[in-house]
Structures are given as structure tokens and as C-alpha cells.
User: Fold this.
Amino acid sequence: MAMRKSFLGFLVIVASLSVVCAEEAEVKSIPQLDRAALPGKQVKVAAICIGFGGEREAKLKEAIDQLHTAGKNGVDIACLPEEFAGTDAEPIPGPTTNAVANLAKQYNMYVICPIREQAGDKQYNTAVLIDRKGEVAGYYRKVFVFWGEGLHLSTEGVKVFKTDFGKISILTCFDLNYPELWQKCDDLDVDIVFWPSAYGGGFPLNAMAILYHYYIVPVGAGNIIDITGKTCPDIEKPRDKQFIATLDLDRAFAHHDFNRKKVEKMLEEHKGEIVIERNLSEEDLAPWWLFKATKPGVSVRKLLKEYKIETLREYQHRSRKQINEARKEGKRI
Assistant:
């Protein structure tokens, strides 16, 4: 009898190990991007548009189900909507962030998990960034709280979060209406702005993307926006309410000013490695080039530095600083 119990116990252990091994095998087989084998700097993002608020347990279950889908599709970072699991406040870390962190760790992906945060005696509309290991990597508290939310206002402002694929910021819903926040994201040199929201946002988001040359990932309607200001053309929809896009963070604009000869030389010496994706035309009057790498291992941004060509953002930032300094000193430009 003792031997039989021991044998049954052994079978239970083996079965448990088999389940663990199967889970590990499933995670290892996730088709995450092999960035070294791709041109530029690719990242896969997911907007999970399951809406604001609702009954906590039902919404959390829906979010976890959606995150399983994102993870199995090799997503690098997924974003949920603001206060997606209801408006009961909780600390960081807390029940909602802990549940989401398990998925982030399982699928080796970042997740932006917006909650109503209880911080001491104050409450905030907060988006929590969870890293690939399931750890809290940071948070953003909504700056412009909408009328009637009954929440405290952030005193920390816009933040930049450094991930293993690039720099991101987060703005939330009503923040859309305040250009100074989007300008700050530009000042922080971010690659992507995530926008968890209760609504779709519309054209103002497209305008911010082209004005500041970063991608925007809205989580109201899933209209992921390219740095050209247009909706990304190849958005995947693996299921209802989920939108996935692969973004190339290496693509870069440069201004025609002072750069023509340097650009000609770069293109001549790197034929077949980079292309001009857009340029000044009758349809598009902005005097900018948009460059894209076409060969694995090639980086547009590294080539621009090599040929001493500023990106459009660098050019604009330097010009602002130097012109303002000249203004203070009463100099001519």
C-alpha cells in the first residue's frame, strides 16, 4: 500500500512537471521578432480596446484572455484602456497589476495596465508599466483629469520610460487636448506614445504624430498611427477588440536644409540598404525625407550620424535652443 501511494505521488509529480514543461515550451515557441535578422528596429505593439470601467472580475478576465492572445502573437508591448477593470481604487502593486504581471512574465512582454490608484489618501488615474519579467517598471498619472472623475491631479507630469526596444511615454484620454504634454513627449525624445483612453481620439492624434515624428498607439479604437500621421496600413486583428502592428523605430525624417549633398553621398554609398520612403512632392509639401532601412543589420539612424545628418527632431530641437539663445543675447541669426 505504501509503495502504491509512493508510486501515485510520483505520477502526480511527473504530471505536474509535464504541465510546466508544456507551458514553458508554449512560451518558448512564441513568434517574437528576431530583430537582428530584420532591417531597422522592429517592435510589435498591441492595442487592447476592451473599454473603460465595468464589473471588475468580468473585465479582468476579459483583459487576461486578450493578453494571452497578444502574447501568443509575439507582442513586445500591449496596452489596456484606462481603468479597464472598474473604478475601485487599489495600490501599486495590487490585485489588478499582479494579475496582469503574471501574463507579462509568461509571455516575456511589456504591458501597460491602467488602474485607479490608491496612493496614501489620494487617488489617481494611473497607467502602470509592467516589464517583461512581470515587475513594475514605472507609472504615469493622468495630468488633465476629466470633469467628474473625482480624482487627484498628477504633480509629476509627463515621463519617459526606457524599454529594451526604445523610449516610450504614456498620456491618458483627456490629455489629448493639451499640446504641451505632446510637446513634452517630443522633448523627451520618445519613439512611441501610448494613449489609453475611453474614446477613439480621432484626427488630433494623427496631427500630433506628424507634428512630433513619433508613433501613437491609441487604445480607444485601435487606430495605431504611423510617424507620417497616417493610420498604419498593416494592422493585424487576431480577434475582436485587439489591434497589432509592427513598427520600425529606426525610420527617420531629415530636413532638406543643409543636407542635400550629404544625403546624395549616403544614398550612393549604401544602395540596396536604405530607401527614401517619402519626399517633397505636389501632394506632400513638407521639405523632408523619410528614410527606411531595407537590409537586415542596417540602421538608418546610425548612417545619419555617420554622414553628420541630423534627424528632423534633432534639427528642430537644436534650432529652437540656438535661436532662443540668440534672442536673449539680442543677436542676429
Remarks:
- The chain has two domains: 30-248, 252-329.
- DSSP finds eight helices and 14 strands in the chain.
- The first strand starts at residue 42 and ends at 48.
- Helices lie at 2-28, 56-72, 95-107, 179-187, 203-212, 260-269, 300-306, 312-329.
